[in-house]
Specification:
The complex is a heterodimer of chains A (98) and B (464).
Chain A lengths: L1 E3 L7 E6 L2 E6 L4 H7 L6 E2 L6 E2 L12 E4 L2 E5 L10 E3 L1 E2 L7
Parallel strand pairs in A: 2-8, 4-9
Antiparallel strand pairs in A: 2-3, 4-5, 6-7, 6-8
Chain B lengths: L3 E7 L3 H12 L4 E4 L18 H7 L1 H4 L1 H9 L4 E3 L2 E6 L4 E6 L2 E12 L3 E3 L12 E3 H11 L1 E3 L3 E5 L2 H12 L4 E6 L5 H5 L3 H4 L3 H16 L4 E2 L3 E6 L6 E6 L2 E6 L3 E4 L2 E3 L2 H6 L3 E4 L4 E4 L12 E3 L9 H18 L5 H18 L3 H7 L4 H4 L7 E3 L4 E2 H9 L5 H8 L12 H10 L22 H5 L3 H4 L1
Helix pairs in contact in B: 1-4, 1-11, 6-9, 11-12
The chains are: A mainly beta (98), B alpha/beta (464).
Chain lengths: 98, 464
């Protein structure tokens, strides 16, 4: 779907996307990292379980909701990657950690 | 961050940046809040961190933003990036989230400069992974240097579609097709506005250069396309469309769509600012006087969140609103306000010469806006279809808010940002109230999400 223009960015952080370890440039949004990693969908809907992926990338569509470091319903387009960040697809409404 | 500022500006795009800088130049204590990590808004996104090479690919209009951004850095403006505003009321109390900590601050004057969002136009398959807004494609390019692998399809109607195609062309992205859904009869609709548009012919010239470059590069743009559909199961696999009376289909894993931009009115609406339906721009926009004052005392709105006018117009409107704020705060006399405003007013008038032509040329057909296919999802969050809404209209419900209660359309996480306009169009086309009368969803805080824990952590004084 997407590719990076610059294959060798200088500063990288390591994050985990759905169990897979990926190196991504510092400062990137989670949504961008996920799209560049070729993840085909980022959540399933609470209503019909349909797969969805980021749509607007500017914070207005709420399609990119993911589980980030255990917190559900985070907008992946508004969060920036951090070393060791754990990103998971969100299935349905998302469950708050107890 | 202080608890109170004479002027708080929300949004660090061209309008907010220009406003903040001029207000600070006049000695005003001004706070600029923005949800992005760096100044520039969507249009000048990542201006300070972008590699020179990529900035060049984006064109000269993008690079204009550098001056605005550096003026902010040289100013005394209290600038707060990564700050989400989740509430604003008529008393100018602002609820915000900064460093994950919620706060309430107050202001004598609030300037909303939240910019625009892409107009959501539902069509069959638009919820499939692999269908995205063209603006999203541009954000990936600007901020992250990420572009489509070969084989992307661009479709829709509006200047951004052409600009993005041109930018991709220069970045070496191979596009399978650019599908222009602008109906041919829009040319006639736009013709009466051409003489005025020619007064700012550099805009038209730029569009023609983009078209010529695309043509020379052998990129096929099809015009007068209709009946766009995205097809696939887990994600998009192909698209289909109608052109010259024939059905066609293209295999692709990425479709970028664009149907123009509309003011982002969510915060203004939650504050209670009155809005009117703008027939030529096909969107709601706030009621404003010619200084940017909204219907609520002390709340001003400037830039694309006031009315779509583009980045340069936003810059002028931002400065005019800031000058008005200086006057309202008693810092400058009315005479000085009017004198200071002269140049920006003149330049803004000139900038706006192009708008009636663009609005008419890229007028989105009513048929498209009222979502003809019953099975198409209108509310992406709650998965309410056009058919569900038409059923509600047939049952006698003609008001957007009524339909929201009945169908849950607009009750999901996006709070109706993606479906409000479509519902109004469907209701109008199905024989309900006119778009202008059917009303818009009521906006309610928090307009961006915060946890109950964050809300509860506000001190009692702040909550009062």
């Amino acid at each position: 779907m997407f590719k990076r223009l610059d294959d060798n960015p200088e500063k990288l952080v390591t994050i985990t996307i759905d169990g897979q370890s990926v190196e991504v440039p510092v400062g990137e949004t989670v949504a961008a990292a996920v799209l560049a990693a070729g993840i085909n969908y980022t959540r399933t809907t609470p209503v019909s379980d349909a797969p969805r992926a980021p749509f607007c990338l500017m914070g207005v569509c709420y399609e990119c909701l993911m589980v980030i470091d255990g917190q559900p319903n985070r907008r992946a387009c508004r969060e920036r990657v951090r070393e060791g960040m754990i990103i998971e697809r969100q299935h349905g409404a998302g469950v708050l950690p107890t | 961050m202080k608890d109170h500022y004479p002027l708080v500006i929300i949004g660090a795009g061209p309008a907010g940046l220009a406003a903040a800088v001029i207000a600070a130049e006049h000695g005003l204590d001004v706070a600029l809040l923005d949800e992005q990590p760096a100044p520039g808004g969507q249009i000048y996104r990542a201006m300070e961190s972008i590699p020179a090479e990529r900035a060049e690919l984006l064109g000269t209009e993008y690079q204009r933003g550098r001056k605005l951004v550096s003026a902010l850095r040289d100013s005394s403006v209290d600038y707060f990036p990564d700050t989400q505003v989740w509430s604003l009321n008529h008393k100018r109390e602002i609820g915000l989230l900064h460093d994950k900590t919620p706060r309430m601050i107050t202001a004598d004057q609030v300037l909303l400069a939240g910019g625009a969002m892409e107009r959501p136009v539902p069509f069959p398959g638009w919820t499939l992974p692999g269908v995205m807004n063209a603006g999203a494609g541009q954000i990936l390019f600007k901020a992250h240097g990420i572009v489509p692998s070969d084989g992307v399809v661009l479709a829709g109607s509006g200047p951004l579609l052409l600009l993005l195609a041109w930018q991709y062309l220069h970045a070496g992205v191979k596009m399978k097709a650019v599908l222009d859904l602008t109906p041919m009869h829009n040319h006639l609709r736009a013709l009466p506005h051409l003489p005025r548009a020619l007064l700012v012919h550099h805009y038209l010239a730029k569009g023609l250069v983009y078209k010529k470059d695309l043509k020379q590069a052998g990129s096929s743009t099809l015009h007068n396309v209709s009946d766009l559909r995205a097809e696939g199961n887990e994600g998009i696999a192909s698209i289909s469309y109608r052109h010259k009376g024939q059905q066609h289909s293209i295999e692709t894993d990425l479709l970028l769509v664009h149907f123009g931009v509309i003011p982002h009115t969510h915060l203004a609406r939650a504050a209670g600012c009155r809005h009117d339906w703008d027939r030529s721009q096909q969107c709601w926009r706030p009621q404003l006087d010619n200084w940017g004052n909204s219907s609520i005392d002390g709340i001003l709105i400037a830039g694309d969140s006031a009315r779509i006018g583009g980045a340069r117009t936003a810059e002028h409107a931002g400065r005019l609103a800031a000058i008005q704020s200086l006057h309202a705060l008693g810092l400058i006399h009315q005479r000085d306000r009017n004198r200071l405003a002269k140049k920006d007013r003149k330049w803004m008038r000139e900038e706006l010469h192009i708008r009636p032509f663009l609005d008419a040329f890229f007028h989105i057909p009513g048929k498209l806006l009222s979502v003809p296919d019953d099975d198409t999802i209108v509310c992406r969050c709650e998965e309410v279809t056009a058919g569900d809404i038409r059923e509600a209209v047939a049952d006698g419900h003609h008001d957007s808010n009524q339909i929201k209660f009945l169908t849950r359309c607009g009750m999901g996480p996006c709070q109706g940002r993606q479906c409000a306009e479509s519902v109004a169009h469907i209701v109008a086309a199905a024989g309900g109230d006119d778009v202008a009368l059917g009303g818009h969803y009521r906006g309610r805080p928090p307009v961006t999400p915060l946890t109950l824990g964050q809300l509860a952590s506000l001190s009692p004084e702040e909550v009062e």
